[in-house]
Design a protein that fits this description.
Strand content: 5-15%
CATH architecture of one domain: 3-Layer(aba) Sandwich
Number of helices: 10
Mean pLDDT: 94
Distance between the termini: 52 Å
Helix content: 40-55%
Shape: globular
Low-confidence stretches: none
Oligomer: single chain
CATH topology of one domain: Undecaprenyl pyrophosphate synthetase
CATH class of one domain: Alpha Beta
Structural class: alpha/beta
Largest sheet: 6 strands, parallel
CATH superfamily of one domain: Decaprenyl diphosphate synthase-like
Strand order of the largest sheet: 3-4-2-1-5-6
């Protein structure tokens, strides 16, 4: 039997959800899943315990996004900077990430797209991630970008490299390219090409900076910073982020 506090929480969530107009739902939500290690330290637990707790909160988040009508979700699970962490921390984290991506693929609910510098990842991890994406490529429904080994500057550099290689194959000279290059030409080579840019970016743990997340794509994004560490992020926090987004007037730099 549900407790009184559970009933109040559910009623508040329902009321909050009803207050958000359907016209105010973002198409693309980016989430910086921050605070796993600090969550673990507060509890006297090891770092891996924090990452496991964070991993367990990913599927509920995707369910909330799906329920709200979000079309694309980008989850930042591992940055390029994180790849420099000691093996005793990085190896368990990579195993946890691979396991959660396998679990998302096995659910057959969402189309997974791995974004990041895959060449920086161990071969075994890369194969697992590619397999998960391949098995969900034809599924309908919400896109889920899993950003692993991701850095915004690296993404832009990779996009420029891809653009230059494409034109080199065509025989285009650098002078010719410099005279015709437009912003959208670089955008067409980003990891998220073909997808809408994020309307809303959420960062947990109280940090109020982007750290390079979707550096190119977030030019016109709205940002929501939540004090809760990622493992403690609840549906009510997500709904508050949506409400905040819906209440804003987007000016797109005007």
């Amino acid at each position: 039997m549900a407790s009184l506090s559970d009933l109040i929480y559910r009623a508040y969530n329902a009321s909050l959800a009803k207050s958000i107009p359907s016209s105010g739902i973002p198409r693309h939500v980016g989430v910086m899943l921050d605070g796993n290690r600090r969550w673990a330290r507060q509890r006297g637990a090891g770092t891996a315990a924090g990452h496991r707790a964070g991993a367990e909160n990913i599927k509920p988040l995707l369910g909330w996004c799906e329920e709200a009508g979000v079309e694309v979700v980008t989850l930042w699970l591992l940055s390029t900077d994180n790849l420099d962490r000691p093996p005793q921390e990085l190896d368990p984290l990579l195993r946890i990430i691979s396991a959660v991506v396998d679990d998302l693929a096995a659910s057959r609910r969402w189309r997974l797209h791995v974004v990041g510098a895959s060449d920086l990842l161990p071969e075994r991890t890369r194969r697992q991630l590619d397999q998960a994406a391949a098995t969900t490529a034809e599924l309908p429904g919400m896109w889920v970008n899993v950003a692993i080994g991701y850095g915004g500057r690296r993404e832009i550099a990779d996009a420029v490299r891809s653009l230059l290689a494409e034109h080199a194959d065509r025989g285009t000279s650098l002078r010719e390219l410099s005279q015709t290059l437009e912003i959208e030409h670089i955008a067409d080579h980003l990891y998220t090409k073909g997808q809408p840019d994020p309307d809303l970016v959420i960062r947990t743990s109280g940090e109020q900076r982007l750290g390079g997340f979707l550096l190119w794509q977030s030019t016109h994004s709205e940002f929501y910073f939540c004090e809760a560490f990622w493992p403690d992020f609840r549906k009510v926090d997500f709904l508050r982020a949506l409400r905040s987004y819906a209440e804003r007037e987007r000016r797109y730099g005007a």
